[in-house]
């Protein structure tokens, strides 16, 4: 079973009144995010379609090297770390742009977070808020576009390699040409298979 930590304990906002717990409905964020790529990136994150090395049932069974962030190497690779804690330069820049947008357009700021739980709580509050879901979806999309391990087949998911393939040569996958399911495309669209 794959853990989807961002969906646990979330509150669904209402246009009027107090938010309520609704374990099955994801409708509000889909209706608010009109840019297709942003909506698909957010949906894929929430549905657990991205592979995070640090999300495993018992991380203690694995060495830190096999579960650490592939961008910064400072902590276990989890959604909270990748999006809200990672110190990779391009992720920090996108996070700063998100903070500027939230501050300028929504008069919302957040205190620095230092833990996985704090980061995931912050993500939940921004994703499942009626107003901040739109800039948060854009931020998620931007980080996913820069993260070379998202949006293509991962080496751990490959059953067979073609002779002379890039994987055998240690080549890099190109997000622009290979999608998660291995199909060819220009990388501008993201597909979700249910």
Commentary on this structure:
This is Reverse transcriptase. It comes from Mycena pura. This protein has helices at 27-32, 36-46, 64-67, 79-85, 89-106, 116-127, 133-146. It is mainly α. It is 37% helix and 0% strand. α2 packs across α7. It has 7 helices and no strands.
Topology (SSEs and partners):
Blueprint: H1 27-32, H2 36-46, H3 64-67, H4 79-85, H5 89-106, H6 116-127, H7 133-146
Helix pairs in contact: 2-7, 4-6, 5-7
Main features:
194 residues, mainly alpha, Reverse transcriptase
* Quaternary state of the chains: single chain
| Share of β-strand residues | under 5%
Terminal-residue CA separation:
16 Å
SS field, number of helical segments:
7
| Overall outline | globular
DSSP strand count: 0
Protein name: Reverse transcriptase
Summarize the structure.
The protein has 194 residues and is mostly helical.
